[in-house]
Write a structure and sequence with these properties.
alpha/beta; two-stranded antiparallel sheet; 11 strands
Length: about 260
């Protein structure tokens, strides 16, 4: 059983900042980025939290009480009452006691995951964003794992958001396929669905395992151009009437910088 003294790899705790995409776009939140991931997406914007050597170099091993203390200090100082668990894939870790401790202190917990791993503590969070990987991300979509995850979610009353980064029409077709899966599972009712324009210039890892953000000069203009191109397709595709389409607000503001 997970205890408060067992340590997990934390890449960064930062905020208050704003959520840049999905159902909570624009909301104030703290972030905890946990290290470790079961995927290796070629277009990942958080490789410093994914690749094992980078996780080893960049993470601090913290117990759950240490994480809670840092978050509650920021709550006391700023009044921020949301925290988002991100990664990597935070569902690799047993975080149920952390969720309980934050709830007792008046904080709400959002989680971002690709929907490949399930943990019972997810039944107690306040917002869950599931981001299955379309072809443009450069990783294989495991439909069986996604469906098993969603079947577990069907037994909860946790608000659920589906958020899919898109780079091309191929990814839009993938989104239509995800909606079909949800409909066939009778899970589409009440689920909010977002397209999020993909970051075509994600940061790479430098030899010291930190993020290389040297593409910053063209990042914003490229993101807006890609958004405009895909928006033209979105606006005339009747199959996407249940989807909202946003840019990545945090990338427009801060580029690929970590910890913002």
């Amino acid at each position: 059983m997970q205890t408060r003294t067992r340590k997990v790899p934390v890449i960064e705790i930062f905020g208050p900042t704003i959520q840049g995409e999905g159902e909570m776009i624009g909301w104030r939140t703290m972030f905890v980025r946990f290290g470790g991931c079961d995927y290796r997406c070629k277009m990942c914007d958080s490789l410093h939290a994914v690749m094992p050597a980078a996780v080893k170099a960049n993470s601090t091993r913290m117990n759950l009480s240490e994480i809670a203390d840092k978050l509650l200090m920021e709550k006391a100082n700023t009044g921020v009452d949301w925290v988002t668990f991100s990664g990597g894939n935070p569902v690799m870790w047993e975080l149920g006691e952390l969720v309980d401790e934050l709830h007792l202190a008046g904080m709400s917990v959002a989680v971002e995951t690709q929907g490949t791993l399930w943990k019972p503590w997810l039944k107690n969070v306040d917002m869950l964003t599931v981001s299955p990987k379309a072809p443009g991300m450069g990783e294989k979509f495991e439909q069986d794992k996604f469906m098993a995850f969603m079947a577990e979610m069907a037994e909860t009353d946790v608000p659920l958001c589906i958020k899919i980064p898109v780079f091309s029409q191929l990814d839009i077709e993938f989104c239509v396929g995800i909606e079909t899966i949800l409909r066939d599972m009778v899970l589409d009712e009440g689920v909010t669905k977002y397209l999020s324009v993909g970051n075509s210039h994600p940061p790479k890892l430098k030899p010291d395992m930190t993020l290389d953000t040297s593409d910053e000069g063209v990042l914003v203009s490229t993101l807006l151009n890609d958004y405009g191109i895909l928006l033209d397709q979105y606006l005339i595709d009747r199959r996407l009437s249940g989807w909202r389409f946003t840019p990545q607000l945090h990338v427009l503001i801060w580029g690929n910088k970590a910890g913002v």
